[in-house]
Amino acid sequence: MNRRRRIYEGKGKIIYEGPEPGTLVQHFKDDATAFNNKKHEIVDGKGVLNNRISEYIFNHLNAIGIPTHFIRRMNMREQLIREVEIIPLEVVVRNVAAGSIAKRLGLEEGTQLPRSIIEFYYKNDELDDPMVAEEHITAFGWATPQELDDIMALAIRVNDFLSGLFLGVGIRLVDFKIECGRLFEGDMMRIVVADEISPDSCRLWDIETNDKMDKDRFRRDMGGMLEAYQEVARRLGIIVSQERPVGSGPTLVQ
Ligand code: UDP
């Protein structure tokens, strides 16, 4: 087997050197983690699903002109991506109150927000990813004011696209997180969407039942995480359900 140089290993993914300069391979692991790695389990098959779901979303973002690091999926667990300089921010967009904003502001989970809200968290495990304001970001030089404008514009476009995509398959996009990176092309640099977008980084609720179809099933010990991710993939048409529809009668076994 080809030995590739491992560049970085995170909680859910490994980054390897890519086949050509300027490319990397992003490998999705089955590790489920929450609360800054205090809760950790292996969920067989999660990496495969996140690889497929993230591929589907990034392909669509690329197709509508939202720049991303994604090039193509290589196999069940890996995708080829462009090498970018990751900006050390988690950019969270919220449409409905849930999770930390519900707690922080005393909002009932499920309350529609007056408008979409963007928040920034400084990516730093030792500090538990503290929430920061634009002032901190520009003062400490994590991103310039112009870059922040680009990041916010990207975040809104991703939110608009994802909200519609999920609504079309009966899912409410409550909130999600993206990461952005600087892509250098010759003398030019532009900000692109990086990392992944999957049920690990989004809150997805069934429109009818409000059932959670995301990582909260793991965070909150609800069980059924893999099944929920499978259902997201099935609704998006990424995987075909193996189950026959109820009431479809006997089938001929060949
Ligand atoms: N999120 C993420 N990675 C993080 C923190 C949050 O992907 O390290 C996502 C999370 O899945 C949710 C959104 O960002 O979709 C907002 O998360 P929140 O601030 O409510 O924090 P949490 O409740 O996840 O601690």
UniProtKB/TrEMBL annotation:
Catalytic activity: 5-amino-1-(5-phospho-D-ribosyl)imidazole-4-carboxylate + L-aspartate + ATP = (2S)-2-[5-amino-1-(5-phospho-beta-D-ribosyl)imidazole-4-carboxamido]succinate + ADP + phosphate + 2 H(+)
EC number of this enzyme: 6.3.2.6
This protein's UniProt keywords: ATP-binding, Ligase, Nucleotide-binding, Purine biosynthesis
UniProt key word Transmembrane: no
Keyword Ligase attributed: yes
Pathway assignment: Purine metabolism; IMP biosynthesis via de novo pathway; 5-amino-1-(5-phospho-D-ribosyl)imidazole-4-carboxamide from 5-amino-1-(5-phospho-D-ribosyl)imidazole-4-carboxylate: step 1/2
One of the Pfam families matching this protein, by short name: SAICAR_synt
Domain called SAICAR synthetase/ADE2 N-terminal: residue spans: 7-235
CDD domains (UniProt xref): SAICAR_synt_PurC
Top enzyme class: ligase
Family annotation (NCBIfam families): purC
Record's protein name: Phosphoribosylaminoimidazole-succinocarboxamide synthase
Source organism of this protein record: Roseibium denhamense
Lineage: Bacteria, Pseudomonadati, Pseudomonadota, Alphaproteobacteria, Hyphomicrobiales
Gene name tied to this protein: purC
